[in-house]
Amino acid sequence: IMNMAIVMGSMQITNRLDLEDAKTKQLILGVYVASQAVVLLVSLIIKRRIEAKKDTTVLKYLDQPKPLSGEQPKVVTTTNMAYDLEQNAQAQKQALFGLVFMIFLHFQFGVIRPLVVQSILPVKNALQSKWAQVYLFGKPAEGELKRPWKADNPFAALTGAQDQQTEAEEKAAIKKAEKAEAKAGKSESKKDQ
């Protein structure tokens, strides 16, 4: 709902701006690039804090396959530090891709209105991310912030759906997947012999 309010508010702002004026276009582009720099700076600060903390606690979780792939979930064993660095790196790649894509659209097709929205949403999302909550704002990695971090389902709040597994269900699912992987590994080794 907050994202929709931001989009609607930024549309009202752009309706009041003279988008044909070159100075206004330059200002909007400058604000957009500055906001993207803030997102990348936040990401770099988080990366430094992850590396400084050096949390080598073992983390086991199920890596869900892509929908309709027919694959079974795989057990991933890593450390909190490696997992956090991976999540942060994905956020950096996403931010860089968005920056390149929007600048391409702006210079190739003269798109200016989406730059206003994209000046606000990425900063908000970066500061509200689970890794930012843990590493920037010092919140404990418990409850909703417990690893592995699940992507927020925007429709869950609207439908009242609960897709959160209990800790016991999660551990049982991991054990089941480990047994399935072990069984598959044994059958592979028998085929090789």
Structure in words:
Pfam families: Pho88. Residues 156-193 are annotated as: Disordered. It comes from Entomortierella chlamydospora. Residues 168-193 have a biased composition (Basic and acidic residues). One of its GO terms (biological process) is protein targeting to ER. With 193 residues, the protein is mainly alpha-helical. Helices cover 67% and strands 6% of the residues. The chain contains seven helices and two strands, in the order ααββααααα. A two-stranded antiparallel ribbon has the order 1-2. α1 packs antiparallel against α4, α2 (22-53) packs parallel to α4 and α3 runs antiparallel to α4 (113-128). The radius of gyration is 21 Å and the shape is elongated. The N and C termini lie far apart (58 Å). Mean pLDDT is 83; it is low at 156-163.
What's the rounded overall pLDDT mean? Answer: 83
Helix content: 55-70%
Distance between the termini: 58 Å
| Main sheet summary | 2 strands, antiparallel
By DSSP, the count of extended strands is 2
Q: Looking across the biggest beta sheet, what order are the strands in?
A: 1-2
Rg from alpha-carbon coordinates: 21 Å
Q: In percent terms, what proportion of residues is strand?
A: 5-15%
Task: Spell out the helices and strands N to C.
Answer: HHEEHHHHH
Taking pLDDT < 50 over at least 5 consecutive residues as the criterion, the unreliable ranges are: 156-163
Structural class: mainly alpha
Tally of contiguous helical segments: 7
The outline comes out as elongated
